[in-house]
Amino acid sequence: NPQNNPGVHAFVVMNEAGIAVKASNNLSTKIQGQQPVPNDKAAHYAANISLLLSKVKAGLKKEGEEQDALESLRLRTSTNEIIVVPAEKYTIIVIHEPFKKKVKKEEKKEGEEKKEE
């Protein structure tokens, strides 16, 4: 389960038609007596990533790189990072918080210590 990794907020598994077939609990709706089903937000991620993947694959073919398979795609926003890993029948989409660099905090602490001296 991808959500067991630190920083992972959610994940969606979509089929080759771009339909969300499985999602993490925060992107699923629970129906009494049934397995949780992906909600609207999971469907939104799946639809948009499916469209993006088709355009990227078309671009690779246009550039003559059709023998190179797309292994992963990484999208970074100011708040999240989205990792897309397509496979033959399914694609996994993982949404996580990018890791913050701890080096800057240490540098600031050292800088503050120098000011105090």
Could you give a short description of this structure?
This protein is of the alpha+beta class and 117 residues long. Helices cover 32% and strands 28% of the residues.
Order of helices and strands: EEEEHEEEH
Given the C-alpha coordinates, what overall shape results? flat
Query: What is the terminal-to-terminal distance?
Result: 49 Å
Low-confidence stretches: none
Largest sheet: number of strands, sense, barrel closure: 5 strands, antiparallel
Rg measurement, Å: 19 Å
Helix percent band: 25-40%
Proportion of residues in β-strands: 25-35%
Q: Tell me the number of helical segments per DSSP (H or I, 4 or more residues long).
A: 2
Biggest sheet strand order reads 2-1-7-6-5
Strand tally, please?
7
Oligomer: single chain
